[in-house]
Amino acid sequence: RLLEQFVPTSGSLLLGVLGDPIAHSKSPVMHHAALKAHGISGHYVPLHVKPDNLKEAIQAVRVLGFRGVNVTIPHKVEVMSYLDKIDEGAAKIGAVNTIVNDHGVLTGYNTDGIGYVRSLKDEVLPGLSGSNIVVLGAGGAARGIVHALTLEMAGSISIINRTSSKAVQLAEEWGGGTSTIRGYGEHEAEEAVSSADVIINTTSVGMHPHVDQMPVEAEWIPEGIVVSDLIYNPLKTKLLTESEARGCRVHGGLGMFVNQGAFAFEYWTGLTAPVEEMKQAVLESF
Length: 286
Ligand code: ATR
Known about the structure:
Blueprint lengths: L12 E7 L7 H11 L4 E7 L5 H11 L3 E4 L13 E2 L1 H6 L4 E5 L2 E5 L2 H12 L8 E5 L3 H13 L3 E5 L3 H11 L5 E5 L4 H6 L3 E4 L24 E4 L8 H8 L3 E3 L2 H16 L5 H10 L2
Helix pairs in contact: 1-9, 1-10, 4-5, 4-9, 9-10
The structure holds 2'-monophosphoadenosine-5'-diphosphate.
2'-monophosphoadenosine-5'-diphosphate (ATR) binds next to helix 5.
């Protein structure tokens, strides 16, 4: 089996996540569920790494024989300097969340956007192509999602951001493919949202503790469309509650978290990730 060559002589597959802070990460519980479902002896450890120590921590991944690690806030951009190879998509996005160690050669990937799109398709929108999608926000999360959307669909993507120049810039970077992509400022939000089939919130508006905030006015949202929010604390944001009241199909951020982990698990092990078991483990840990 592919996996056996990556298990250290100590006998257990080594995986982990590097971040600062890291204590509240749900990744260990989720990946242990995946290891258990496959009957793999392994450990997925939370590793508290301060920015000043990131370079040495990556060297430790090599010498300790970790098969792979996830990388989270605040290291996703900086870590790229310490890897041997960067996947094309991750390089374009400008951030890495998953590292695969092939006998000392480290490759960086970004599974956030592709994980998000997989969960969107699985949970609410099997047929993505032809959709008129509105992405709210133009930060790091939006970059990964726009990248993954353009890989999967032909349609229209409108990016709306408080700082309109960032939305325009993002649209330019991913333009030229099979989808029409445009960037706008907030004053154009109402018009774009009113004609959307799918709305995706990538901003932090509505995240705990600001649970009463909405990234757009509820009245603008067409009845019966798909509304998705990357936020998973709370599991159902005000945007999703209001959208549900308007007859929309809603999709929360938990699916993105689980599926970014599922892709990482698949890269490390070559096995199919047990997505349902992983999701249940995260839900039970709340
Ligand atoms: P992430 O990696 O989660 O995307 P980020 O790169 O800091 O984080 O991006 C945050 C996004 O949320 C940005 O699009 C930001 O808008 P600006 O580019 O104008 O800063 C958006 N955002 C954050 N707080 C917001 C608020 N109160 N209202 C509107 N947009 C907000």
